[in-house]
Protein backbone atom coordinates (compact mmCIF):
# COMPACT_ATOMS: atom_id res chain seq x y z
CA UNK A 1 0.00 0.00 0.00
CA UNK A 2 2.82 2.40 0.90
CA UNK A 3 4.54 1.65 -2.39
CA UNK A 4 1.35 2.53 -4.26
CA UNK A 5 0.93 5.72 -2.24
CA UNK A 6 4.55 6.70 -2.87
CA UNK A 7 4.10 6.09 -6.59
CA UNK A 8 1.04 8.31 -6.67
CA UNK A 9 2.81 11.09 -4.80
CA UNK A 10 5.66 10.90 -7.30
CA UNK A 11 3.15 11.02 -10.16
CA UNK A 12 1.44 14.06 -8.66
CA UNK A 13 4.75 15.90 -8.25
CA UNK A 14 5.76 14.98 -11.80
CA UNK A 15 2.39 16.21 -13.06
CA UNK A 16 2.72 19.55 -11.28
CA UNK A 17 6.22 20.00 -12.69
CA UNK A 18 5.06 19.11 -16.20
CA UNK A 19 2.11 21.50 -15.95
CA UNK A 20 4.42 24.33 -14.90
CA UNK A 21 6.86 23.62 -17.73
CA UNK A 22 4.03 23.52 -20.26
CA UNK A 23 2.80 26.87 -18.96
CA UNK A 24 6.21 28.51 -19.33
CA UNK A 25 6.54 27.12 -22.83
CA UNK A 26 3.03 28.32 -23.75
CA UNK A 27 3.93 31.85 -22.69
CA UNK A 28 6.71 31.90 -25.27
CA UNK A 29 4.43 30.87 -28.15
CA UNK A 30 2.95 33.75 -30.16
CA UNK A 31 -0.16 31.76 -31.06
CA UNK A 32 -0.90 30.83 -27.45
CA UNK A 33 -0.41 34.41 -26.28
CA UNK A 34 -2.74 35.64 -29.04
CA UNK A 35 -5.58 33.35 -27.92
CA UNK A 36 -4.91 34.31 -24.31
CA UNK A 37 -5.40 37.99 -25.20
CA UNK A 38 -8.10 37.96 -27.87
CA UNK A 39 -10.99 36.70 -25.73
CA UNK A 40 -10.41 39.06 -22.76
CA UNK A 41 -10.09 41.97 -25.18
CA UNK A 42 -13.27 41.02 -27.02
CA UNK A 43 -15.23 40.58 -23.79
CA UNK A 44 -13.98 43.90 -22.43
CA UNK A 45 -15.24 45.67 -25.55
CA UNK A 46 -18.59 43.89 -25.17
CA UNK A 47 -18.88 45.06 -21.56
CA UNK A 48 -18.15 48.64 -22.62
CA UNK A 49 -21.13 48.52 -24.97
CA UNK A 50 -23.31 47.44 -22.03
CA UNK A 51 -22.58 50.57 -20.03
CA UNK A 52 -25.80 52.30 -19.04
CA UNK A 53 -27.95 49.15 -19.36
CA UNK A 54 -29.46 47.48 -16.29
CA UNK A 55 -30.79 44.01 -15.53
CA UNK A 56 -34.57 44.12 -16.17
CA UNK A 57 -36.52 44.81 -12.99
CA UNK A 58 -33.44 45.92 -11.02
CA UNK A 59 -31.02 48.83 -10.73
CA UNK A 60 -28.04 46.50 -11.21
CA UNK A 61 -25.82 47.36 -14.17
CA UNK A 62 -26.02 44.67 -16.84
CA UNK A 63 -22.25 44.76 -17.29
CA UNK A 64 -21.76 44.14 -13.57
CA UNK A 65 -23.79 40.94 -13.83
CA UNK A 66 -22.10 39.80 -17.04
CA UNK A 67 -18.49 40.29 -15.90
CA UNK A 68 -18.63 37.67 -13.09
CA UNK A 69 -20.54 35.39 -15.44
CA UNK A 70 -17.76 35.75 -18.03
CA UNK A 71 -15.20 34.80 -15.39
CA UNK A 72 -17.20 31.70 -14.51
CA UNK A 73 -17.59 30.88 -18.19
CA UNK A 74 -13.83 31.25 -18.70
CA UNK A 75 -13.18 28.68 -15.99
CA UNK A 76 -15.56 26.16 -17.55
CA UNK A 77 -14.49 26.84 -21.13
CA UNK A 78 -10.79 26.66 -20.28
CA UNK A 79 -11.30 23.39 -18.42
CA UNK A 80 -13.51 21.66 -20.97
CA UNK A 81 -12.60 22.87 -24.46
CA UNK A 82 -8.86 23.36 -23.86
CA UNK A 83 -7.98 19.79 -22.81
CA UNK A 84 -10.38 18.28 -25.33
CA UNK A 85 -8.54 19.97 -28.18
CA UNK A 86 -5.01 19.46 -26.87
CA UNK A 87 -5.28 15.77 -26.07
CA UNK A 88 -5.39 14.82 -29.73
CA UNK A 89 -2.04 16.56 -30.19
CA UNK A 90 -0.62 14.73 -27.18
CA UNK A 91 -1.79 11.47 -28.68
CA UNK A 92 -0.20 12.20 -32.06
CA UNK A 93 3.18 13.37 -30.71
CA UNK A 94 3.63 10.39 -28.37
CA UNK A 95 3.00 12.18 -25.06
CA UNK A 96 0.25 9.75 -24.06
CA UNK A 97 2.32 6.79 -25.15
CA UNK A 98 5.11 7.88 -22.81
CA UNK A 99 2.63 8.48 -19.99
CA UNK A 100 1.24 4.97 -20.47
CA UNK A 101 4.72 3.50 -20.03
CA UNK A 102 5.26 5.29 -16.70
CA UNK A 103 3.86 3.98 -13.38
CA UNK A 104 0.77 6.06 -12.52
CA UNK A 105 1.61 8.03 -15.64
CA UNK A 106 -2.01 8.81 -16.46
CA UNK A 107 -2.56 10.27 -13.01
CA UNK A 108 0.49 12.49 -13.47
CA UNK A 109 -0.69 13.45 -16.95
CA UNK A 110 -4.11 14.47 -15.60
CA UNK A 111 -2.61 16.46 -12.72
CA UNK A 112 -0.33 18.22 -15.18
CA UNK A 113 -3.28 19.22 -17.36
CA UNK A 114 -5.27 20.53 -14.40
CA UNK A 115 -2.27 22.64 -13.35
CA UNK A 116 -1.48 23.84 -16.87
CA UNK A 117 -5.02 24.82 -17.82
CA UNK A 118 -5.56 26.26 -14.36
CA UNK A 119 -2.59 28.62 -14.76
CA UNK A 120 -3.41 29.65 -18.33
CA UNK A 121 -7.10 30.13 -17.55
CA UNK A 122 -6.19 32.21 -14.51
CA UNK A 123 -4.01 34.44 -16.69
CA UNK A 124 -6.91 35.01 -19.11
CA UNK A 125 -9.27 35.78 -16.22
CA UNK A 126 -6.91 38.38 -14.80
CA UNK A 127 -6.51 39.97 -18.23
CA UNK A 128 -10.30 40.21 -18.43
CA UNK A 129 -11.13 41.22 -14.86
CA UNK A 130 -8.65 44.04 -14.24
CA UNK A 131 -9.57 46.36 -17.15
CA UNK A 132 -13.27 45.47 -17.04
CA UNK A 133 -13.63 46.03 -13.29
CA UNK A 134 -12.23 49.54 -13.65
CA UNK A 135 -15.06 50.60 -15.97
CA UNK A 136 -17.96 48.76 -14.32
CA UNK A 137 -19.54 49.74 -11.03
CA UNK A 138 -21.84 47.78 -8.71
CA UNK A 139 -19.25 45.06 -8.08
CA UNK A 140 -18.54 43.76 -4.59
CA UNK A 141 -14.82 43.22 -4.10
CA UNK A 142 -14.32 42.45 -0.42
CA UNK A 143 -13.10 39.72 1.92
CA UNK A 144 -15.89 37.37 0.88
CA UNK A 145 -14.88 37.81 -2.75
CA UNK A 146 -11.23 37.15 -1.93
CA UNK A 147 -12.19 33.93 -0.11
CA UNK A 148 -14.91 32.54 -2.36
CA UNK A 149 -13.52 33.31 -5.81
CA UNK A 150 -10.28 31.26 -5.50
CA UNK A 151 -12.22 28.31 -4.07
CA UNK A 152 -14.67 28.41 -6.98
CA UNK A 153 -11.77 28.63 -9.42
CA UNK A 154 -9.97 25.58 -7.99
CA UNK A 155 -13.14 23.50 -7.72
CA UNK A 156 -14.13 24.57 -11.23
CA UNK A 157 -10.86 23.46 -12.79
CA UNK A 158 -10.95 20.11 -10.99
CA UNK A 159 -14.55 19.66 -12.13
CA UNK A 160 -13.89 20.44 -15.79
CA UNK A 161 -10.35 19.50 -16.87
CA UNK A 162 -10.74 15.73 -16.28
CA UNK A 163 -14.06 15.73 -18.15
CA UNK A 164 -12.52 17.76 -21.00
CA UNK A 165 -9.61 15.31 -21.19
CA UNK A 166 -11.96 12.31 -21.27
CA UNK A 167 -14.06 13.90 -24.02
CA UNK A 168 -10.98 14.73 -26.06
CA UNK A 169 -9.83 11.11 -25.92
CA UNK A 170 -12.98 10.06 -27.77
CA UNK A 171 -12.04 12.03 -30.89
CA UNK A 172 -9.58 10.87 -33.51
CA UNK A 173 -8.44 14.28 -34.74
CA UNK A 174 -8.12 17.90 -33.67
CA UNK A 175 -10.87 18.83 -36.11
CA UNK A 176 -13.31 16.46 -34.42
CA UNK A 177 -12.41 17.83 -30.99
CA UNK A 178 -13.76 21.20 -32.13
CA UNK A 179 -17.20 19.69 -31.49
CA UNK A 180 -16.55 20.26 -27.78
CA UNK A 181 -16.06 23.97 -28.46
CA UNK A 182 -19.29 24.07 -30.48
CA UNK A 183 -21.19 22.27 -27.73
CA UNK A 184 -19.71 24.70 -25.18
CA UNK A 185 -21.04 27.69 -27.11
CA UNK A 186 -24.50 26.12 -27.21
CA UNK A 187 -24.43 25.48 -23.46
CA UNK A 188 -23.20 29.02 -22.76
CA UNK A 189 -26.29 30.33 -24.54
CA UNK A 190 -28.60 28.60 -22.03
CA UNK A 191 -26.47 29.06 -18.90
CA UNK A 192 -27.35 32.63 -17.91
CA UNK A 193 -23.95 34.05 -18.87
CA UNK A 194 -25.08 37.03 -20.94
CA UNK A 195 -28.66 37.28 -19.66
CA UNK A 196 -30.48 36.03 -16.53
CA UNK A 197 -31.35 32.35 -16.88
CA UNK A 198 -34.77 33.07 -15.38
CA UNK A 199 -35.70 34.76 -18.67
CA UNK A 200 -35.43 31.41 -20.48
CA UNK A 201 -38.15 28.74 -20.77
CA UNK A 202 -38.16 26.30 -17.86
CA UNK A 203 -36.94 23.36 -19.94
CA UNK A 204 -33.91 25.35 -21.09
CA UNK A 205 -33.21 26.35 -17.50
CA UNK A 206 -33.01 22.66 -16.58
CA UNK A 207 -30.60 21.97 -19.42
CA UNK A 208 -28.38 24.87 -18.36
CA UNK A 209 -28.35 23.71 -14.74
CA UNK A 210 -27.09 20.26 -15.73
CA UNK A 211 -23.66 21.60 -16.75
CA UNK A 212 -20.78 23.48 -15.06
CA UNK A 213 -21.17 26.67 -17.11
CA UNK A 214 -24.27 27.74 -15.21
CA UNK A 215 -22.99 26.83 -11.74
CA UNK A 216 -19.59 28.47 -12.21
CA UNK A 217 -21.30 31.62 -13.50
CA UNK A 218 -23.66 31.54 -10.51
CA UNK A 219 -20.76 31.06 -8.11
CA UNK A 220 -18.71 33.93 -9.48
CA UNK A 221 -21.77 36.19 -9.46
CA UNK A 222 -22.39 35.32 -5.81
CA UNK A 223 -18.78 36.24 -5.03
CA UNK A 224 -18.70 39.55 -6.90
CA UNK A 225 -22.21 41.03 -6.91
CA UNK A 226 -23.78 43.08 -4.10
CA UNK A 227 -26.52 41.87 -1.77
CA UNK A 228 -29.88 41.83 -3.49
CA UNK A 229 -28.51 40.85 -6.90
CA UNK A 230 -29.67 37.29 -6.27
CA UNK A 231 -33.21 38.49 -7.00
CA UNK A 232 -32.59 37.76 -10.69
CA UNK A 233 -31.51 34.17 -9.98
CA UNK A 234 -33.55 30.98 -9.75
CA UNK A 235 -35.26 30.89 -6.36
CA UNK A 236 -33.98 34.40 -5.57
CA UNK A 237 -30.91 32.69 -4.09
CA UNK A 238 -27.23 32.12 -4.84
CA UNK A 239 -27.70 28.43 -3.93
CA UNK A 240 -24.07 28.17 -2.79
CA UNK A 241 -24.43 24.66 -1.33
CA UNK A 242 -26.06 23.37 -4.51
CA UNK A 243 -23.37 25.04 -6.60
CA UNK A 244 -20.53 23.29 -4.77
CA UNK A 245 -22.54 20.06 -4.72
CA UNK A 246 -23.03 19.94 -8.50
CA UNK A 247 -19.43 20.92 -9.22
CA UNK A 248 -18.28 18.33 -6.69
CA UNK A 249 -20.21 15.62 -8.53
CA UNK A 250 -18.62 16.66 -11.82
CA UNK A 251 -15.18 16.61 -10.17
CA UNK A 252 -15.62 13.12 -8.70
CA UNK A 253 -16.99 11.71 -11.94
CA UNK A 254 -14.18 13.28 -13.93
CA UNK A 255 -11.38 12.13 -11.64
CA UNK A 256 -12.76 8.57 -11.65
CA UNK A 257 -13.68 8.28 -15.32
CA UNK A 258 -10.89 10.28 -17.02
CA UNK A 259 -7.93 8.05 -15.97
CA UNK A 260 -9.88 4.96 -17.07
CA UNK A 261 -10.76 6.45 -20.46
CA UNK A 262 -7.23 7.77 -20.98
CA UNK A 263 -5.66 4.42 -20.11
CA UNK A 264 -7.95 2.60 -22.53
CA UNK A 265 -7.14 5.06 -25.26
CA UNK A 266 -3.41 4.78 -24.54
CA UNK A 267 -3.58 0.99 -24.83
CA UNK A 268 -4.53 1.43 -28.46
CA UNK A 269 -1.52 3.69 -29.01
CA UNK A 270 1.66 2.15 -30.32
CA UNK A 271 4.93 3.62 -31.51
CA UNK A 272 3.98 2.74 -35.07
CA UNK A 273 0.63 4.53 -34.70
CA UNK A 274 2.37 7.65 -33.39
CA UNK A 275 4.85 7.57 -36.27
CA UNK A 276 2.01 7.15 -38.76
CA UNK A 277 0.26 10.20 -37.30
CA UNK A 278 3.46 12.22 -37.56
CA UNK A 279 3.98 11.12 -41.16
CA UNK A 280 0.41 12.16 -41.98
CA UNK A 281 1.00 15.63 -40.50
CA UNK A 282 4.29 16.03 -42.35
CA UNK A 283 2.64 14.99 -45.60
CA UNK A 284 0.19 17.88 -45.19
CA UNK A 285 3.12 20.27 -44.94
CA UNK A 286 2.70 21.26 -41.26
From TrEMBL:
PROSITE patterns: ABC_TM2. One of its GO terms (cellular component) is ATP-binding cassette (ABC) transporter complex. It comes from the Bacteria. One of its GO terms (biological process) is response to antibiotic. It is a multi-pass membrane protein. The chain crosses the membrane at residues 33-50, 62-81, 114-136, 148-171, 178-197, 243-262. It holds the Pfam family ABC2_membrane_3. It is found in: Membrane. GO terms for molecular function: ABC-type transporter activity. Residues 31-265 form the ABC transmembrane type-2 domain. Keywords: Antibiotic resistance, Membrane, Transmembrane, Transmembrane helix. This is ABC-2 type transport system permease protein. It comes from Nocardioides thalensis.
